[in-house]
Amino acid sequence: MPIKPSNKVSPAFSTASMTDIVFLLIIFFLLTSTFVNPNALNLVLPSSQSKTTVNQPLSISISADLKYYIGKQQVRPENLRPLLTEQLKNQPDPTIVLNAEKSVPIEKVVAVMDIANDLKVKMVLATAPIKE
Q1: Model-level pTM?
Q2: I need a labelling partner for 1 at 20 to 30 A (CA). Which of 10, 24, 75, 107 fits?
């Protein structure tokens, strides 16, 4: 009786290890794609999904017709710095929330931000949530 080899090579291919590699690659590309920002100069503002909350912020608003408000009180732009200095002098770690309409020129918004920077005050630019 002739002896037959008992080890036969199976022609089947196991895809279990291949699927593991594919899933690892998918996870890698999903994670690294969040770090890439292809629209670095996309300046469609102000819309945001983030929500920043602060304790007792002072609100400054600039309307479309370039009227300035601290809270609900209308102020002249040249009086903004002294009024802010007066209202923020006794507050520890003060914060200002800036509400500016889309049509307000960026120069006006930057001017208010410069005042806050000179007073060493944190400023948050308020944005509307993105409508889905």
Answers
A1: 0.54
A2: 10
